Amino acid sequence: LYVRRVEVKVTFLTWEYPPHIYGGAGVHIQNLVQNLRGRIEIEVRTLLSEESQASEAEEDGVRVLRYPRWKLLRSESRYSTVLSAFSMDLAMVKDPIDGEIVHAHTWYTALGGYYAKQLCDQRLVMTVHSLEPKRPWKEQALGNAYRLSTWAEKTGIEACDRVIAVSYTDAKNIVEFYDVARERVKVIPNGVDAEAFQRRKDPQVLAKYGVREPYVLFLGRLSRQKGVFDLVSAAPRLPEDVELVLVTGAVDEPGIEDELSRRLEGRRNILWINKMLPRNEVVALLSGTSVFVSPSLYEPFGIMNLEAMACERPVVSTRVGGIVDVIVDGETGLLVSPGNPGELSEAVNRILLNPELGERMGKAGRERVRETFTWKRVADETLSLYGEMLE
Protein backbone atom coordinates (compact mmCIF):
# COMPACT_ATOMS: atom_id res chain seq x y z
CA LEU A 1 0.00 0.00 0.00
CA TYR A 2 1.44 3.37 -1.05
CA VAL A 3 0.74 5.98 1.62
CA ARG A 4 1.16 9.60 0.65
CA ARG A 5 2.39 12.12 3.20
CA VAL A 6 -0.60 14.02 4.61
CA GLU A 7 -0.33 17.28 6.53
CA VAL A 8 -3.52 17.34 8.58
CA LYS A 9 -4.94 17.67 12.06
CA VAL A 10 -7.68 15.21 12.91
CA THR A 11 -10.09 15.49 15.84
CA PHE A 12 -11.36 12.10 16.97
CA LEU A 13 -14.75 11.88 18.67
CA THR A 14 -15.21 8.65 20.61
CA TRP A 15 -17.21 7.33 23.57
CA GLU A 16 -14.41 4.86 24.42
CA TYR A 17 -10.77 5.71 24.95
CA PRO A 18 -8.17 4.38 27.41
CA PRO A 19 -8.68 3.66 30.22
CA HIS A 20 -12.42 3.45 29.39
CA ILE A 21 -12.58 0.56 26.88
CA TYR A 22 -15.16 -2.19 26.86
CA GLY A 23 -15.69 -3.18 23.22
CA GLY A 24 -14.26 -3.44 19.74
CA ALA A 25 -14.73 0.25 18.95
CA GLY A 26 -12.52 1.17 21.90
CA VAL A 27 -9.84 -1.30 20.83
CA HIS A 28 -9.99 0.15 17.31
CA ILE A 29 -9.62 3.80 18.30
CA GLN A 30 -6.82 3.02 20.78
CA ASN A 31 -4.72 1.21 18.18
CA LEU A 32 -5.55 3.61 15.36
CA VAL A 33 -4.36 6.58 17.41
CA GLN A 34 -1.20 4.73 18.46
CA ASN A 35 -0.33 3.98 14.83
CA LEU A 36 -1.14 7.48 13.54
CA ARG A 37 0.61 9.31 16.38
CA GLY A 38 3.67 11.19 15.12
CA ARG A 39 2.51 11.00 11.51
CA ILE A 40 -0.27 13.59 11.83
CA GLU A 41 -1.52 15.95 14.52
CA ILE A 42 -4.21 14.29 16.63
CA GLU A 43 -6.72 15.49 19.18
CA VAL A 44 -9.08 13.08 20.95
CA ARG A 45 -12.38 14.18 22.48
CA THR A 46 -13.98 11.52 24.63
CA LEU A 47 -16.03 10.67 27.71
CA LEU A 48 -14.89 11.75 31.16
CA SER A 49 -15.48 8.42 32.90
CA GLU A 50 -14.86 7.27 36.45
CA GLU A 51 -11.57 5.73 35.30
CA SER A 52 -10.34 9.03 33.81
CA GLN A 53 -7.84 11.14 35.73
CA ALA A 54 -8.13 14.56 34.10
CA SER A 55 -10.44 16.48 31.79
CA GLU A 56 -7.54 17.70 29.62
CA ALA A 57 -4.11 16.16 29.30
CA GLU A 58 -1.25 15.33 26.96
CA GLU A 59 -1.19 11.54 26.73
CA ASP A 60 1.64 9.95 24.74
CA GLY A 61 1.92 12.92 22.45
CA VAL A 62 -1.84 13.22 21.90
CA ARG A 63 -4.04 15.99 23.29
CA VAL A 64 -7.00 14.33 25.02
CA LEU A 65 -10.07 16.30 26.08
CA ARG A 66 -12.58 14.46 28.27
CA TYR A 67 -16.17 15.65 28.67
CA PRO A 68 -18.71 14.65 31.33
CA ARG A 69 -22.26 13.62 30.62
CA TRP A 70 -24.93 15.93 31.97
CA LYS A 71 -25.55 14.76 35.54
CA LEU A 72 -29.26 15.57 35.40
CA LEU A 73 -29.65 12.89 32.71
CA ARG A 74 -27.84 10.16 34.60
CA SER A 75 -30.64 8.13 36.13
CA GLU A 76 -32.14 4.66 36.18
CA SER A 77 -34.37 5.55 33.25
CA ARG A 78 -33.98 3.34 30.18
CA TYR A 79 -33.66 6.56 28.20
CA SER A 80 -30.64 7.82 30.14
CA THR A 81 -27.96 6.09 28.00
CA VAL A 82 -29.09 7.78 24.79
CA LEU A 83 -29.82 11.16 26.36
CA SER A 84 -26.47 11.13 28.19
CA ALA A 85 -24.70 10.42 24.91
CA PHE A 86 -26.48 13.39 23.34
CA SER A 87 -25.32 15.61 26.19
CA MET A 88 -21.72 14.52 25.62
CA ASP A 89 -22.07 15.25 21.89
CA LEU A 90 -22.98 18.83 22.78
CA ALA A 91 -20.11 19.12 25.23
CA MET A 92 -17.60 17.86 22.65
CA VAL A 93 -18.23 20.81 20.33
CA LYS A 94 -18.29 23.57 22.95
CA ASP A 95 -14.53 24.08 22.49
CA PRO A 96 -13.31 25.32 19.08
CA ILE A 97 -12.20 22.63 16.64
CA ASP A 98 -9.28 23.87 14.58
CA GLY A 99 -8.35 20.79 12.58
CA GLU A 100 -9.27 19.96 9.00
CA ILE A 101 -11.02 16.64 9.64
CA VAL A 102 -13.36 15.33 12.33
CA HIS A 103 -13.42 11.54 12.68
CA ALA A 104 -16.39 10.21 14.68
CA HIS A 105 -16.86 6.64 15.92
CA THR A 106 -20.20 4.86 16.52
CA TRP A 107 -23.67 6.37 16.98
CA TYR A 108 -22.60 7.69 20.40
CA THR A 109 -20.66 10.52 18.72
CA ALA A 110 -22.61 10.71 15.44
CA LEU A 111 -24.40 13.91 16.47
CA GLY A 112 -21.12 15.38 17.74
CA GLY A 113 -19.67 14.91 14.27
CA TYR A 114 -22.78 16.43 12.69
CA TYR A 115 -22.61 19.46 15.02
CA ALA A 116 -18.90 19.94 14.32
CA LYS A 117 -19.45 19.96 10.58
CA GLN A 118 -22.30 22.48 10.81
CA LEU A 119 -20.55 24.76 13.30
CA CYS A 120 -16.97 24.65 12.05
CA ASP A 121 -17.23 23.50 8.42
CA GLN A 122 -14.85 20.57 8.99
CA ARG A 123 -14.72 17.59 6.70
CA LEU A 124 -16.42 14.69 8.45
CA VAL A 125 -15.72 10.97 8.37
CA MET A 126 -17.30 8.32 10.59
CA THR A 127 -16.23 4.75 11.25
CA VAL A 128 -19.28 2.50 11.51
CA HIS A 129 -18.51 -0.25 14.02
CA SER A 130 -22.11 -1.48 14.07
CA LEU A 131 -25.51 -0.35 12.80
CA GLU A 132 -28.53 0.31 14.99
CA PRO A 133 -31.10 -1.07 12.47
CA LYS A 134 -29.24 -4.40 12.58
CA ARG A 135 -29.67 -4.62 16.36
CA PRO A 136 -33.45 -4.53 16.93
CA TRP A 137 -33.13 -6.32 20.28
CA LYS A 138 -31.71 -3.06 21.69
CA GLU A 139 -35.27 -1.75 21.79
CA GLN A 140 -35.86 -4.07 24.75
CA ALA A 141 -33.18 -2.18 26.67
CA LEU A 142 -33.67 1.37 25.37
CA GLY A 143 -37.41 1.48 24.77
CA ASN A 144 -38.39 4.34 22.46
CA ALA A 145 -34.91 5.83 22.94
CA TYR A 146 -33.81 3.25 20.39
CA ARG A 147 -35.58 5.45 17.80
CA LEU A 148 -33.31 8.31 18.87
CA SER A 149 -30.07 6.31 18.71
CA THR A 150 -31.03 5.17 15.20
CA TRP A 151 -31.94 8.75 14.21
CA ALA A 152 -28.61 10.04 15.56
CA GLU A 153 -26.70 7.40 13.63
CA LYS A 154 -28.60 8.21 10.43
CA THR A 155 -28.08 11.96 10.84
CA GLY A 156 -24.34 11.59 11.44
CA ILE A 157 -23.66 9.05 8.71
CA GLU A 158 -25.60 10.88 6.01
CA ALA A 159 -23.77 14.13 6.81
CA CYS A 160 -20.35 12.51 6.29
CA ASP A 161 -18.04 13.34 3.42
CA ARG A 162 -16.78 9.75 3.65
CA VAL A 163 -17.81 6.72 5.71
CA ILE A 164 -15.54 3.89 6.86
CA ALA A 165 -16.98 0.38 7.07
CA VAL A 166 -15.08 -2.37 8.90
CA SER A 167 -16.20 -5.10 6.46
CA TYR A 168 -17.81 -5.47 3.04
CA THR A 169 -21.06 -6.64 4.64
CA ASP A 170 -20.94 -3.54 6.85
CA ALA A 171 -20.58 -1.37 3.74
CA LYS A 172 -23.51 -3.09 2.06
CA ASN A 173 -25.69 -2.52 5.14
CA ILE A 174 -24.75 1.17 5.36
CA VAL A 175 -25.93 1.75 1.79
CA GLU A 176 -29.05 -0.34 2.40
CA PHE A 177 -30.25 1.52 5.48
CA TYR A 178 -29.02 5.07 4.89
CA ASP A 179 -28.88 7.57 2.05
CA VAL A 180 -25.18 7.09 1.30
CA ALA A 181 -23.70 6.38 -2.13
CA ARG A 182 -21.47 3.28 -2.20
CA GLU A 183 -18.53 5.29 -3.59
CA ARG A 184 -18.54 7.37 -0.38
CA VAL A 185 -17.96 4.22 1.70
CA LYS A 186 -14.41 2.93 2.21
CA VAL A 187 -13.88 -0.58 3.64
CA ILE A 188 -10.99 -0.70 6.13
CA PRO A 189 -11.03 -3.95 8.16
CA ASN A 190 -9.97 -3.97 11.80
CA GLY A 191 -6.62 -5.26 12.99
CA VAL A 192 -4.94 -6.97 15.90
CA ASP A 193 -1.68 -6.46 17.78
CA ALA A 194 0.00 -9.77 16.98
CA GLU A 195 2.85 -9.05 19.40
CA ALA A 196 0.55 -8.47 22.36
CA PHE A 197 -1.72 -11.34 21.33
CA GLN A 198 0.40 -14.42 20.88
CA ARG A 199 0.17 -17.79 22.57
CA ARG A 200 1.35 -17.52 26.18
CA LYS A 201 -0.01 -20.15 28.52
CA ASP A 202 -0.23 -19.12 32.18
CA PRO A 203 -1.47 -21.80 34.63
CA GLN A 204 -1.65 -19.19 37.40
CA VAL A 205 -4.38 -17.27 35.56
CA LEU A 206 -6.38 -20.45 35.05
CA ALA A 207 -5.97 -21.34 38.73
CA LYS A 208 -6.99 -17.83 39.79
CA TYR A 209 -10.42 -18.23 38.17
CA GLY A 210 -10.82 -21.97 38.74
CA VAL A 211 -10.58 -22.86 35.04
CA ARG A 212 -9.82 -26.50 34.35
CA GLU A 213 -8.63 -27.92 31.07
CA PRO A 214 -9.82 -28.85 28.53
CA TYR A 215 -12.16 -25.90 28.08
CA VAL A 216 -14.08 -24.02 25.40
CA LEU A 217 -13.99 -20.23 25.70
CA PHE A 218 -16.45 -17.42 25.01
CA LEU A 219 -15.22 -13.88 25.62
CA GLY A 220 -17.25 -10.77 24.85
CA ARG A 221 -19.85 -8.27 25.96
CA LEU A 222 -22.92 -9.66 27.70
CA SER A 223 -25.30 -8.98 24.85
CA ARG A 224 -27.92 -10.88 22.88
CA GLN A 225 -25.97 -9.82 19.81
CA LYS A 226 -23.07 -12.04 20.88
CA GLY A 227 -25.19 -15.22 20.91
CA VAL A 228 -24.18 -16.32 24.39
CA PHE A 229 -27.57 -17.93 25.06
CA ASP A 230 -27.17 -20.12 21.96
CA LEU A 231 -23.82 -21.28 23.31
CA VAL A 232 -25.37 -22.12 26.69
CA SER A 233 -28.02 -24.16 24.85
CA ALA A 234 -25.27 -25.99 22.96
CA ALA A 235 -23.23 -26.80 26.09
CA PRO A 236 -25.02 -30.07 27.06
CA ARG A 237 -23.92 -31.56 23.71
CA LEU A 238 -20.22 -31.03 24.50
CA PRO A 239 -18.10 -33.86 26.00
CA GLU A 240 -18.59 -34.29 29.75
CA ASP A 241 -14.94 -33.62 30.53
CA VAL A 242 -14.95 -30.27 28.69
CA GLU A 243 -15.71 -27.07 30.59
CA LEU A 244 -17.42 -24.08 28.98
CA VAL A 245 -15.91 -20.82 30.21
CA LEU A 246 -17.94 -17.64 29.69
CA VAL A 247 -16.07 -14.36 30.18
CA THR A 248 -18.44 -11.40 29.90
CA GLY A 249 -17.67 -7.73 30.32
CA ALA A 250 -19.89 -4.73 29.71
CA VAL A 251 -23.63 -5.35 30.00
CA ASP A 252 -25.83 -4.22 27.10
CA GLU A 253 -29.23 -4.21 28.78
CA PRO A 254 -30.85 -4.32 32.22
CA GLY A 255 -31.86 -7.76 33.41
CA ILE A 256 -29.65 -9.76 31.05
CA GLU A 257 -27.28 -10.73 33.89
CA ASP A 258 -30.19 -12.14 35.90
CA GLU A 259 -31.46 -13.97 32.82
CA LEU A 260 -28.11 -15.64 32.21
CA SER A 261 -27.75 -16.48 35.90
CA ARG A 262 -31.11 -18.27 35.83
CA ARG A 263 -30.08 -20.19 32.70
CA LEU A 264 -26.92 -21.39 34.44
CA GLU A 265 -28.57 -22.60 37.65
CA GLY A 266 -27.74 -26.25 38.26
CA ARG A 267 -25.59 -26.47 35.11
CA ARG A 268 -22.41 -28.45 35.46
CA ASN A 269 -19.26 -27.73 33.50
CA ILE A 270 -20.05 -24.05 32.90
CA LEU A 271 -17.88 -21.39 34.54
CA TRP A 272 -19.02 -17.76 34.33
CA ILE A 273 -16.45 -15.00 34.87
CA ASN A 274 -18.55 -11.85 34.87
CA LYS A 275 -15.93 -9.07 34.76
CA MET A 276 -13.60 -7.20 32.44
CA LEU A 277 -10.18 -8.83 32.52
CA PRO A 278 -6.76 -7.24 31.91
CA ARG A 279 -5.13 -8.08 28.61
CA ASN A 280 -2.53 -10.47 30.04
CA GLU A 281 -5.31 -12.60 31.54
CA VAL A 282 -7.30 -12.51 28.29
CA VAL A 283 -4.22 -13.73 26.42
CA ALA A 284 -3.70 -16.52 28.96
CA LEU A 285 -7.32 -17.70 28.66
CA LEU A 286 -7.21 -17.54 24.86
CA SER A 287 -3.90 -19.40 24.79
CA GLY A 288 -5.16 -22.27 26.91
CA THR A 289 -8.52 -22.91 25.27
CA SER A 290 -9.14 -25.86 22.96
CA VAL A 291 -11.66 -23.86 20.91
CA PHE A 292 -12.68 -20.21 20.92
CA VAL A 293 -16.38 -19.77 20.18
CA SER A 294 -18.02 -16.60 18.87
CA PRO A 295 -21.71 -17.40 18.15
CA SER A 296 -22.76 -13.84 17.25
CA LEU A 297 -26.16 -13.11 15.72
CA TYR A 298 -24.81 -9.89 14.20
CA GLU A 299 -21.17 -8.86 13.94
CA PRO A 300 -19.89 -6.10 11.64
CA PHE A 301 -16.37 -7.46 12.17
CA GLY A 302 -15.51 -9.31 15.41
CA ILE A 303 -12.08 -8.33 16.75
CA MET A 304 -12.13 -11.12 19.35
CA ASN A 305 -11.88 -13.68 16.55
CA LEU A 306 -8.67 -12.01 15.38
CA GLU A 307 -7.27 -12.03 18.90
CA ALA A 308 -8.01 -15.76 19.27
CA MET A 309 -6.42 -16.46 15.86
CA ALA A 310 -3.35 -14.44 16.87
CA CYS A 311 -3.04 -16.74 19.90
CA GLU A 312 -3.04 -19.73 17.50
CA ARG A 313 -6.42 -21.03 18.55
CA PRO A 314 -9.10 -22.50 16.25
CA VAL A 315 -12.30 -20.46 16.07
CA VAL A 316 -15.90 -21.57 15.69
CA SER A 317 -18.08 -18.63 14.71
CA THR A 318 -21.21 -17.74 12.81
CA ARG A 319 -21.59 -16.98 9.13
CA VAL A 320 -22.65 -13.34 9.64
CA GLY A 321 -21.34 -9.88 8.82
CA GLY A 322 -17.61 -9.28 8.74
CA ILE A 323 -16.82 -12.67 10.31
CA VAL A 324 -16.84 -14.21 6.82
CA ASP A 325 -14.08 -11.75 5.83
CA VAL A 326 -11.93 -12.91 8.74
CA ILE A 327 -12.31 -16.69 9.15
CA VAL A 328 -11.48 -19.01 6.27
CA ASP A 329 -13.98 -21.83 6.79
CA GLY A 330 -12.20 -25.16 7.22
CA GLU A 331 -8.76 -23.53 7.30
CA THR A 332 -8.57 -21.13 10.26
CA GLY A 333 -11.84 -22.23 11.90
CA LEU A 334 -15.38 -23.34 11.22
CA LEU A 335 -18.41 -21.24 10.32
CA VAL A 336 -21.97 -22.19 11.30
CA SER A 337 -25.46 -20.73 10.92
CA PRO A 338 -26.43 -18.12 13.54
CA GLY A 339 -29.01 -19.09 16.16
CA ASN A 340 -28.42 -22.84 15.72
CA PRO A 341 -27.11 -24.48 18.94
CA GLY A 342 -27.07 -27.94 17.35
CA GLU A 343 -24.87 -26.89 14.46
CA LEU A 344 -22.71 -24.90 16.86
CA SER A 345 -22.05 -27.90 19.13
CA GLU A 346 -21.27 -30.15 16.14
CA ALA A 347 -18.58 -27.76 14.91
CA VAL A 348 -17.03 -27.37 18.37
CA ASN A 349 -17.02 -31.14 18.87
CA ARG A 350 -15.39 -31.69 15.49
CA ILE A 351 -12.36 -29.74 16.68
CA LEU A 352 -12.40 -31.12 20.23
CA LEU A 353 -12.32 -34.68 18.90
CA ASN A 354 -9.53 -33.86 16.45
CA PRO A 355 -6.83 -31.87 18.31
CA GLU A 356 -4.47 -32.01 15.32
CA LEU A 357 -7.08 -30.20 13.23
CA GLY A 358 -7.34 -27.55 15.92
CA GLU A 359 -3.58 -27.03 15.99
CA ARG A 360 -3.40 -26.70 12.20
CA MET A 361 -6.24 -24.18 12.22
CA GLY A 362 -4.58 -22.22 14.99
CA LYS A 363 -1.27 -21.90 13.15
CA ALA A 364 -3.04 -20.96 9.91
CA GLY A 365 -5.08 -18.34 11.80
CA ARG A 366 -2.01 -16.63 13.23
CA GLU A 367 -0.36 -16.57 9.81
CA ARG A 368 -3.47 -14.97 8.31
CA VAL A 369 -3.54 -12.34 11.05
CA ARG A 370 0.12 -11.41 10.58
CA GLU A 371 -0.28 -11.11 6.80
CA THR A 372 -3.61 -9.31 6.56
CA PHE A 373 -4.95 -7.77 9.78
CA THR A 374 -2.39 -5.35 11.20
CA TRP A 375 -3.12 -2.03 12.86
CA LYS A 376 -0.37 -0.42 10.78
CA ARG A 377 -2.33 -1.30 7.64
CA VAL A 378 -5.49 0.14 9.21
CA ALA A 379 -3.62 3.38 9.97
CA ASP A 380 -2.07 3.53 6.48
CA GLU A 381 -5.43 3.10 4.73
CA THR A 382 -7.08 5.62 7.05
CA LEU A 383 -4.32 8.13 6.38
CA SER A 384 -4.74 7.68 2.63
CA LEU A 385 -8.47 8.32 3.02
CA TYR A 386 -7.71 11.57 4.87
CA GLY A 387 -5.59 12.60 1.88
CA GLU A 388 -8.47 11.89 -0.49
CA MET A 389 -10.82 13.95 1.68
CA LEU A 390 -8.47 16.95 1.64
CA GLU A 391 -8.35 16.80 -2.16
Task: Produce the secondary structure layout.
Blueprint: E1 9-14, H1 24-36, E2 41-47, E3 56-59, E4 62-67, H2 80-92, E5 101-105, H3 110-120, E6 123-128, H4 138-142, H5 145-159, E7 162-165, H6 168-177, E8 185-187, H7 203-209, E9 215-222, H8 228-234, E10 243-251, H9 256-264, E11 270-274, H10 279-288, E12 291-294, H11 303-310, E13 315-318, H12 323-326, E14 333-336, H13 341-352, H14 355-372, H15 375-390
Parallel strand pairs: 1-2, 1-5, 2-4, 5-6, 6-7, 7-8, 9-10, 9-12, 10-11, 12-13, 13-14
Antiparallel strand pairs: 3-4
In short:
By secondary structure, the protein is an alpha/beta fold. 40% of the residues lie in helices and 19% in strands.
Helical segment tally? 15
Largest sheet: 8 strands, mixed
Helix and strand element order: EHEEEHEHEHHEHEHEHEHEHEHEHEHHH
Q: Quick check: average pLDDT?
A: 93
**Secondary structure: number of strands:** 14
**Separation of termini?**
19 Å
Q: How much strand?
A: 15-25%
Main sheet strand line-up: 3-4-2-1-5-6-7-8
- Tell me the overall shape: globular
Category from helices, strands and their pairing: alpha/beta
Rounded radius of gyration (Å): 21 Å
- What helical percentage do the residues reach? 40-55%
Identify low-pLDDT runs: none
